[in-house]
Every structure is written in C-alpha cells, then in structure tokens.
Amino acid sequence: MTATQPGAVTSELFQIASDVPEYRRDAVLDDISSIIDSNWLTEQRFWSRQHSPFNADHGIVLLHHGGECVAYMIIQRLAVAGTSVIYLSGTAVRDTCRGQGFFKRMFDTAMAAEFGDPAAPAEFCLCWRTRNPVIYVLGRAQCRSVVPAIPAETRTGDLDELCLSLAAILYPRQVIETTTMAMRGAYGGLRYRDEPTTQTSPDVDRWFAQTIPYGADAVFCAGWASNRWARC
After folding, report:
1. How far apart are CA 101 and CA 205, in angstroms?
2. Cα 43 to chain center, whole Å?
3. Which residues lie across from 40 on neighbouring strands?
4. Is residue 147 classed as helix, strand or coil in its secondary structure?
5. Residues 204, 133: contact at Cβ < 8 Å?
6. Listed residue (154, 149, 173) closest to 222, CA to CA
7. Helix (H/G/I), strand (E/B), else coil: 175
C-alpha cells in the first residue's frame, strides 16, 4: 500500500513482509543498506538475503522522496503469554533527512495497520534495541512506562521481567545486564559515523554515554503502549 504524505513524501507499507514481490527484494535491501551506510560504518550488510526481513511475522515501512528511499522501519510481531508484542527490528533515516518526523510517520503507519481493528488489544508491549538516545526518546514517547527508565522512576517488576524475557527470545545468545538492560558488543562491526545525541534530553544523552560507552554496545528497551489507532 502506498500513500501520499505531506511534503511530497510517500509511504509504502508491507504489513506482511513476505508479501514483498521477489523482483523487489534486492532493491529494497539495497535501499535499506544505503540508509544504514549513511549513518553507520559497516563491515558487512546487516539486512541481506541470509538475514532477511521478508518474513510473515515482519512488516516493513519505506518512505520515498524525490525518487529516493529516505527512511525505513522493520517491525516484528510476537505474542508472549497472551501479550501482543511489537519489536522494532530496525529503523533509520537517511542522514540528510533527519529531524523531519519520519520515525513517527513510519511508526503510526505500521501501528495503524497492526492495531486499527476495533477488536485489537487496548495495550501492547513495544520493545526495541538501540545505542541511539534519540531512538530511546522516540520509543519512550510511545509508552506510558518503559525500562530502562531514564531518568530513574518507579519500575514495575512485570515490565522488567517481560523485557528480559523478550531479550532472551530475540537474542538468545546475547547476555543482558538485568539492572541496565545493556547488551555488550551487540552490534559487532557496526559503528556510528557520528555518535547521535538528542540535544533536548541531556539526562538521556548522559545515561547512554556512561552506560554503553563503546560503539558496539546497545540497550534493550520495553514499554507498555496504549492502542490509539483502534477505529471505533
């Protein structure tokens, strides 16, 4: 599905990523890799035919502008103990197009497709892995509570436990620190060209700099998000 967006930006949604036609897949992977390369120094492709997003439990949103793919978001759907879970498997905006609200646009596009049905759950768990404080702030804004909590706030044990459980499901070989949710060396050979900062949330920038100081470190996050997309 393609929809015209303000500013001559168009969005393309594949709610079921395995529906991406075979003839499009290499081009989609090339676009995703090009966006990643504008932000990261990479030793090899992160998404590829071998590590593929074209699965039935994944969804993909692409943003296009001027004949170029300028942003992407990949989600994964899970269900844990009856809880609907959305994992942000990957998202990035081309370095020349940041600050235009593309994350929210892609997120709303994906979530409206997932939870727009009147019978959809009133709440779901959103989780993501990042070393980018901007992504943390954007993800936190979608949730009523989140772990790790920055700044520190009262944390609910059930969310801590769910976060650790999801990390174990998605990354069974990766050790996660139970107090900070940090994953050391999670990104392997990936390094940011320029370490991102929020410029608006110094407490978050400081926490990231102190807690995951090395380029390959990451933090795994989980939060409770209300379904604001359900149609009456």
Report:
1. 20
2. 21
3. 192
4. strand
5. yes
6. 149
7. coil
